[in-house]
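Hello,

Our lab assistant flagged a job as stuck in the queue for most of the afternoon. It eventually completed. Since we weren't sure the result was trustworthy after the delay, we are filing this so someone can double-check. Below is the sequence as submitted and the structure that was eventually returned. Let us know if re-running is recommended.
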Amino acid sequence: MAPIAKAGDCDAITAAESCIEIGTSNMLAKVVPFLARAGIGSADLTLMIFGGAGGIHGPLLAEELGIKRVLVPRLSSVFCAFGCLAADLVHDAVRSVAGTTMNADSMLRIFEELAREGQDWVVNQAPRGQVQQIDTLYLAEARYAAQSFTIPVDVTHAVVSGAGLAAFAAAFHAEHEKLFGYADVNAPVAVNELMVRTYGRQVKPHATPEGKVADHSASPKSHRDLRFQRKWWPDCPIFSRADLGEGWAHSGPTVIEHDLSTVLVPPGFRAVIGALGDIMLTKED
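-- returned structure --
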């Protein structure tokens, strides 16, 4: 049976372009409130992208946000997986103490037990020699006794120095004032949870230059008509990343095809390959 035509039907190109615009708009809706809360101007930022499709969506999002620099890492499509392998080990050990009467000695004893648990976990997670250093952060989920919510407070200094309860309370008052602009030093402080965060600092891989000098005469592998903001750009060059080296540069619109990802260089942006194989897209004036 033949399809039934409906109002608003469009061709494949218009439909695809609409999907891209909706995708960019959804990302924009997430990023703008985040920047507003942080009080950061988008023009001061560099957008670092990741994922196999990051090199396509990132430049389009940057243009909408007014971000002038986009960094495409050398291993963008496996950036998160690579980060998981290289990241430090982190273990959180938590003990609830809500409703119990605590003194300095009992708190320090619990912190000591939690720290030992975290250290044992880190040691068992990696081969010998992989963890170079173990760092410990002591936290307390605390509140004013009359409050219904807690805030995490770094009490590492108080724990390490063996200070009394007054030092724990002082740390809470200082954190509360930093977050909310005020503190009531005469109000009683309640602690709901004690937590020890243990970091196993792993050996990090060192980035090495690709060692390939740019061939500024590298020819495009093909040409293709590209479409940006409902406008066609005919006969745009399509480059193979394998043919390009450090220092290679080209202004958009163009596409750089990589075996791991595809990088889109919109009109008004210029792509430059760095020493470590990253690609920096910069908005041209």
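-- support follow-up --
The delay was a queue issue, not a problem with the job. The result is valid. Residues 37-74+210-285 form one domain. Residues 1-7 have pLDDT under 50 and may be disordered.
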